[in-house]
């Protein structure tokens, strides 16, 4: 066991929703997502692995050879009635409101601020058990973690780009969380 928490956040592989510009349902990885995982393996320098509860994160962990336990706090942003809907079909006013006001949830699900609060609480719980952790999750959760670590305003959430299978590494020491890469 180490005195430092090193958290490697891995974004799940591609799904059909990612390719189609649609809000995801609880769906499997696409053929492309599966091929992405054939070309490489997951991180191997960790003490335990976690993943979001959705099928796409569990499949990413499994195909990467990671023995990940589902963690509810790593669930994707709840987009309520927009789940499964193509981005182009969303009312432009509602979409604009959601993209510019981090407290808004016109879809009836979770706001960006609520997601950031959820991820902040999860990160706070990790510091009680220093370890090297790998977490397979969603771009929204990774964006929220970066917002928390940088103490950035929630409005900056949309300015963070997270590609499929990208890795974001965070460290926690006595002084708090830092973004490593």
UniProtKB/TrEMBL annotation:
InterPro entries: His_Pase_superF_clade-1, His_PPase_superfam. GO terms for molecular function: hydrolase activity. Its EC number is 3.1.3.-. Keywords: Hydrolase. The keyword Hydrolase applies. Gene3D superfamilies: Phosphoglycerate mutase-like (3.40.50.1240). SMART domains: PGAM. It comes from the Bacteria. This is Histidine phosphatase family protein. It comes from [Mycobacterium] burgundiense.
């Amino acid at each position: 066991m180490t005195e430092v928490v090193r958290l490697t956040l891995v974004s799940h592989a591609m799904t059909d929703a990612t390719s189609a510009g649609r809000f995801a349902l609880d769906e499997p990885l696409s053929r492309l997502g599966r091929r992405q995982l054939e070309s490489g393996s997951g991180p191997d320098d960790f003490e335990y692995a976690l993943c979001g509860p959705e099928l796409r994160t569990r499949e990413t962990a499994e195909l990467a050879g990671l023995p990940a336990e589902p963690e509810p706090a790593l669930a994707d942003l709840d987009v309520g009635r927009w789940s499964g809907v193509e981005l182009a079909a969303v009312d432009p006013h509602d979409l604009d409101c959601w993209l510019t006001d981090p407290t808004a949830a016109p879809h009836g699900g979770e706001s960006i601020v609520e997601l950031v609060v959820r991820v902040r609480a999860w990160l706070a719980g990790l510091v009680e058990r220093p370890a090297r952790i790998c977490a397979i999750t969603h771009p929204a959760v990774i964006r929220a973690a970066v917002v928390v670590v940088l103490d950035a305003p929630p409005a900056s959430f949309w300015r963070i780009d997270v590609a499929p299978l990208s890795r974001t590494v965070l460290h926690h020491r006595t002084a708090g969380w830092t973004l490593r890469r």
